[in-house]
Amino acid sequence: MAPVKLSVREYTARSADGEPLFLLHGLLGSSINWHGIARRLAETRTVFAPDLRNHGRSPGAGEMTYPAIADDLAMLLEAKGIPQATVIGHSMGGKAAMWLALTRPERVGSLVVADMAPASYPNGLERVIDPLLGLDLETIVDRRDADDRLAGDLPHPDLRAYLLQNLVREEGAWKWRVNLPVLKGSLRQIAGFPDPAGRQYAGGALFLYGTDSDYVTQTQLPAIRNLFPHARLRAVPGAGHWLYKDQPDAFVGAVQGFLRAGHSDTGTGEIPQRDT
């Protein structure tokens, strides 16, 4: 299947001193999730925040796999005339960033992965997508009404706020700016990770994890070390899975420190001390 042309937000650096940054959002997110972080990182780097396929303003596509997403990103890099970039990805976007680095290492100058590992996770995402599919878009009044209707199935208000960023009113009707049927049909691939088939990424890599999250544990460390032999791991205290939202100052500080250190910063770094 051919790559799709991604919609992208661009933040021009005030005084660029390094390769561009690409920020990749998670499942059911969009480029707008990165807006505050992107503006801060754009002090020294030009930043691109694309909507991944089937999300935001980017086209829908029947295939939702990490190889397909990596093809889209490679085409975007080519279209922008960027030979190499630092790629930063959160959650699903972190897996996409890892796969791009493993399969096209010449395009990834360095890698930052936010609260994700190259591993398969339990697939319980239907509990999030099914309530969205069940929402009667023809009868809702506004986002507050939609929020009230979703509260029974999705009790966490921050999660609902994140999801409802995708609910937009266009031409007098409410619609989702995410391709929910395709995403639901692709949950096994999204929760998993492709077979790396002996690949490694030899560049600098930073794996950030929230201390209040259980997405990166001792269990995933062998896979991280095997695929990314120069990976550094760093905790973000007081952060859950959405660590860039929970602790934005710590997140930006860790990324900027990694960028300032350059690709030679390839020590073993910290490791998570808890296992769940």
Report the mean per-residue pLDDT as an integer.
93
CATH C-level category of the largest domain: Alpha Beta
| Number of separate helices | 11
Strand order of the largest sheet: 1-3-2-4-5-8-9
- Summarize the main sheet: 7 strands, mixed
| Annotation, overall tally of beta strands | 9
* Unreliable segments of 5+ consecutive residues: 264-268
SSE class? alpha/beta
The value of Rg in angstroms is 18 Å
Strand content: 15-25%
Protein described:
The chain has 276 residues and is of the alpha/beta class. It has eleven helices and nine strands. It has a seven-stranded mixed sheet, sandwiched between helices. Strands 6-7 form a two-stranded antiparallel ribbon. Helix 9 (221-227) links the parallel strand 8 and strand 9. The termini are far apart. 41% of the residues are buried.
Quick recap:
The protein is of the alpha/beta class and 276 residues long. It has eleven helices and nine strands.
